[in-house]
Structure formats: structure tokens, C-alpha cells
Amino acid sequence: MKFSYNWLKELVPALPKPNKLGEVLTMHAFEVESITRLGKDHVLDVKILPNRIADASGHMGLAREIAAILGARVVIKTKKLKEGRRQLKDVVVAEVKTPLCRRYTLRGMMGVRVKKSPGWIQERLLACGLRPINNIVDATNYVMLETGQPLHAFDADTIGGKKIIVRMARKGETIDALDDNTYNLDESIVVIADTNRAMVIAGIKGGEDAGISADTKDIVIEAATFDGPTIRMASQRLMLRTDASVRFSVGMDPNLAGEALERAVLLIQEVAGGEVLNGCVDIYPKRITELKILLRPVYVNSLLGTNLRDTDMITILKRLEFGVSQKKQELLVTVPTRRVDITMEEDLIEEIGRLYGLEHMKPRHPVGELIPPAENQSLAMQERMRDMFQGIGFQEVYNYSFVGEKDIMAVGDNADSYLQLENPTRAEFAYMRASLGAGLLKNAAENIKHENGVRFFEMGHVFRCDGFVHKESVHVAGIMAETSLQRSQTLFFELKGALSLFFEALGVDAWFDPPRVDERQQVEAGDTPPPGDMVLHPHRSALIKIGDEKIGVMGEVHPRVLAACGVSGTAVLFELDADLLGRIAQKEMEFRPISRFPSVMRDIALLVPLDTRMVEVEDVIENTGGELLVDMDVIDIYEGAELPDGKKNFAFRLMFQAKDRTLKDEEVNTIMERITKTLEAENSEWEVRT
What we know:
Blueprint: E1 2-4, H1 5-11, H2 18-28, E2 31-38, E3 41-47, H3 53-56, H4 59-70, E4 93-96, E5 101-110, H5 119-127, H6 135-147, E6 151-155, E7 163-168, E8 174-176, E9 182-184, E10 190-193, E11 198-201, E12 205-206, E13 219-226, H7 228-238, H8 243-249, H9 254-272, E14 275-276, E15 281-283, E16 291-295, H10 297-304, H11 310-319, E17 323-327, E18 330-335, H12 345-356, H13 377-391, E19 395-396, E20 402-403, H14 405-410, E21 419-420, E22 431-432, H15 437-447, E23 453-466, E24 469-482, H16 485-488, H17 491-506, E25 510-513, H18 517-525, E26 536-546, E27 549-557, H19 559-565, E28 570-577, H20 578-584, E29 600-609, H21 614-625, E30 629-638, E31 647-656, H22 665-682, E32 687-689
Parallel strand pairs: 4-7, 19-23
Antiparallel strand pairs: 1-3, 2-3, 5-13, 5-14, 5-15, 6-13, 7-10, 8-9, 10-11, 11-12, 16-18, 17-18, 20-22, 21-22, 23-24, 24-28, 25-26, 26-27, 27-28, 29-31, 29-32, 30-31
Main location: cytoplasm
GO molecular function: ATP binding; magnesium ion binding; phenylalanine-tRNA ligase activity; tRNA binding
EC number: 6.1.1.20
């Protein structure tokens, strides 16, 4: 929030220079983010904490804070309001129909002259980031900046039925606001209305119909206090944030409304003339009284690590305008109602500590045994998974947890199973994501324009709506994309190999189960399909299982999905349930020494029918190779005119290695012959080419 240095100096004559003031506030109260020179003034941008907006969002409140820190005095000039003979009740009456309005005060004036504000008001409004409009509106804004209490002025002649009603909006009700926008209201929003229509969105924005114009002669000024959460939700629902809504959203002191209203009427009379009507509407059903808290000086010193005397504590509290009386070994502290942040003894101790100053507290070593907190096993496992994926060449990305209907349609999913937000900030963030796939595809689409290939992974929360039950879990997903046609041929097997390394390092015995088309259709029709399942090609994908339990899915992204997401080239994707995987994974790893003896490489090619699945061939080679076969990589998949019709060629590179000796060619040749015979015996249409 922005504050005028000159304005503050009027209130605290002993104010230090702007830069020194910034240091004092930052050390003892609020961070001063910047100090900017503006003509003969300086503007301080002060980060007022949300729990202090009720008392410190106005210049008077910040002046009190500065005076308390410096031990100075605050000069606040007061003037008695003079009322005329004409009665307010003859011009307007008010009624509050909702308990969400905690206090409603109203005064009236007749014969005002609407014109430009004096220069000193305009300068201060501009310094604080507000645009001058006219002397009536500017006066209400000025008092808000002075006291922190938002106010609103109506043209009295536009109030239908000469009655103001504070009520809940009606379904389908609309209001044309002062910002030239029309807002659709509902029953959760408080409005200030007359007998005909809503005139103000309470605590947020005034309406155009009852606003002050150049022809206005008679006015009604209100100051009110509303329920904070209600104003905050209305502001979010309408996507309308104002200076008033910021203040009301965190809760204001109802006792401030009356003081601010008197100040506003005096200022309007000064800059616009007019007669103040006799009487005041003040509807205040549950009056807020000062809170009393017992404070133990011994506890203060114990918590702060200080040796303050009782008199020191009393002095600090009185500088903050708290009432203090001593009762034996305790202090009875009376808290002003504007300090809504003070609710218990520890809050008072914090006040004493910050005004006394951290610079006066000597650091001391902690006394007693320090017991480290128990490790969060779930987070530790997630970090372990992150390290593993980074170790096998993937880069981590972070995406929003929100998606739009366009994203859902792009991956071929149904929005009915997604958790929908009631008040999305924009259409692209209308749903909570049910999978990480859509975000990764966006990452790939953007980055593949600049690189030939990308390797990304993400770990994050996903959300599913299963009937009336909302399910949340942590998933890990990754994508590999290539524009090179040659590289894209083996991309599926590169991903499979990378995942195999991941599972091996994690200590789980996972396997890949490529379902037949009819099996896959059953999976997609189920209530809880595997994560990412809608995105993948039905013939070039696999379920990932541990035993019979599905933990995820991997495969080539369907061309339709690639086109919808704008990804050029080929992409493969995996998604795993990290929560489930973490529960299954071994906590302790068994390490075995790496063989000191050289390995032997052999290549083998196999001519097979087009409908042959890679995993079928891999299983035969792995089972036949025995313990000396330590690794197997796919090096080529070829389909072309040179091959017989209906045939394709698989090529593998096999690595053999013993733990206790150097292998001889004869041993490896024997194993290769056994693999060849087993492959050809497995299927008469398989032909081995070495």
C-alpha cells in the first residue's frame, strides 16, 4: 500500500527522514518495498500484512505504529460536527436484512456543490495511486486513505422509495457498476439496495445509477462493516478486486465506521459546502467490545529470552495505546478493538518483542535436547524418484494443476470425470487436472520447435472425481519427443529401457503388459482407467504392472492427440501412480559389485510377421539367454520393400558378461545358437538372421 510521507509528517511531527523511516518500519513493523520521490513529497510503498489491514491500512493507523516505535506523539486534529434542522429520517431510512452486515451507519447532506477537489486532496490521492474524480467521491476516498475505512456516497434523489436496504442479492439480479461493467449477482453476494434495485455491491463496488454526478445536490454517505469471508468470496466470484474489497476481505473494526463517517461528512462540508442533516442511522446489533488479556511478565522474558522489567513492558504496551493495569505478578491488558490481530497472550509478547527490537536480543544457544522430526517417507521417496529420472536424462518441469476444457478434449478425455472449480480465474483453469499428460504435451509442443528431441518429466498432484468422491494422488509422468524419423522408430523402446532402469534402481519388479485391442477397450471403459490411458495409441502402448497390480501406462502418443496439442514428430509418454509405487518400492537396496571382467557383444536380427509384438521376442531371448545375458537393446525395427510382404525386421544387441571370469567365444556362441533355435522353434514364421 502507498503512503504519503508529507501526510504522515502532519500526523507525526517528529518523523525521521524518508530513508530512515523506511529502515525503522522494516525493522519493527512492516517491510518498506520502495521509497519514491514525487514532487515535494515521497511515496512509501509499505507491505501491510493482511492481519494488520484493519488498523494500519490508513495514514492514521500507520502514524500510530510509527509513533509507538519512536516513542513520539500522534497529532490528530478533531472538529465537532454541526447538524442542521432538517432531519435525515425525512430524506432516507435504512434497514439491514442480513447478519453479514455487522454495522451500518448513514448520514445525509443537502445543498452540496459537486466540482473538482482542492489541489491538496488531488495530490494526496495521486500519491497513493487513486484517480481524482470529484470533490464528493474524492473526500470519501481521502478518508479511506486516512482512516482505512471504505465509504460510499449516494445521490439521495436516485434512491427509490427513499429507503436503503442491506440484503442478499437475488438470483439473476444484475448491476451496472461505476467501472462501466455489468455484473451478474447471486444469493451469496451482499448488496446495498433501494426498493427497486441493487445500488452497490457491498464492500466491493458502487453502482452507476446511484453515483454522484455534476447535477447532484443532496447526498447520503455510508460507512459499514461486512463479514470478511463473504466479501472475499464475492470478490473472487465476480473477479473484481478493489481497495474496499481488499480491506473488507480481511475484516474491519466495526467501531471505526462511525469515526470515519463523521470525518467524511466534515471534509465534504469543507470542500463542497451544504447542510448536514440532523440525525444518524447506526444499525449495530452486536457491539464489539475491547478484549482483555492476562499477560505474565515471567512468560514474556522466557519466550523472548530477555530480562525486561514489568515497567518496560507496560511502557511499550501503552505506546501501542493498549490499556494496562497491574495485578500482583500479572498485567491485565485491554486491547483496542481496531487490533483484530491480537487475540491471546503470545500476540502481546510478539508486540513487545518487535518494539523492543531484535537488535537488542542477544543470541543464545538452545538449551535442551534437539530431537529431529521424523522423516516424511512419502516426500523422501518422491525426491528419490526425481533424482533417478534426472539421472537417466530427463529434465523436470512444473505445470499448473489446472486445465481447461480444450486441454481435456485434446487428450480425448471426458470433462465429467474432472473436478471443476466453482470460480475459475479464467477458462483455461476451469478444472483440476486428472493426469499430467496434457501439461507435458504442451511442454513438448513448445520446446520441440527449438530442439530435435526433448526429455521431460513432472511429479505432481492429480485429481479425479468419482461420483461424489474426490480422489487426490501424486503421479510422476514423462515424455520423450523426436522430430527425427530415424530416432522416432526406436523411441518406444528407449522409453521402455529408461523405465526398466528406473524400476531396477527403485528395487521393484515391474513388467510391461501390452494389452490386446479388446483388453484395452475394457480398460478405457472402466471407472478408473490407468493414468494417461486416453492419450496413447491402442496398438503401441503397454500397461505397467507390479505383479497383477497396475501402477501406470506407457506408449506412443496417438497421432490425433499429437496434432491436437501441436506436437510435431513422434512422442512417447508414461505416467505412474507415484503414491502406489512408493508404497511398494523397497526401502533398503541390495548392492552387488560390478563385474571386473569384460563383456561380449552380439547382434541378432529376426524376420517376423507384421503383427508380432516386440515383447514376445524379448521374452524368449531373455529366458533363453540365462544369467550370462546381462543386457539387451533394440537397435532397429525395419519395414520396407526389400523385405517379403507382411514381414518386418527386429534387430537386437545382446551383452554377455560373467561375474567370475572372462567369457570365451565358444561359450557365447553356444548361447547364441540356443537362442536361435529357441526363437525358430517358438514360431515357424520367425526367421533368425545373424
